[in-house]
Amino acid sequence: MGCNCGGQAHSHGRRTVTVFRLTKSDGTQHDYLTSQEADAANKRSGNDGTITIFTRPA
Q: So what's the pLDDT on residue 6?
């Protein structure tokens, strides 16, 4: 029986994770896996940070 990989043989090993990075006004950075976590951390620190969304290899 043939492979049921859907023709995406190159997709193995190329998984990515979406990360929400909070950069505070003092330059410190913290990564979170959900936007809610990043937003809550920003609120706890007085809303002085910036949240950037990016992907990185898993």
A: 55
* Predicted structure pTM score: 0.72
Structure tokens at 24: 């505070």
Residue 23 lies in a domain: yes
- Taking the alpha carbons at both ends of the chain, their separation in whole angstroms is 31
Q: Which domain holds residue 32?
A: 14-57
Alpha carbon 10 to its chain's center: 22
Q: How many structural domains does the chain have? A: 1
Three-state SS for 1-58 is: CCCCCCCCHHHCCCCEEEEEEEECCCCCEEEECCHHHHHHHHHHCCCCCEEEEEEEEC
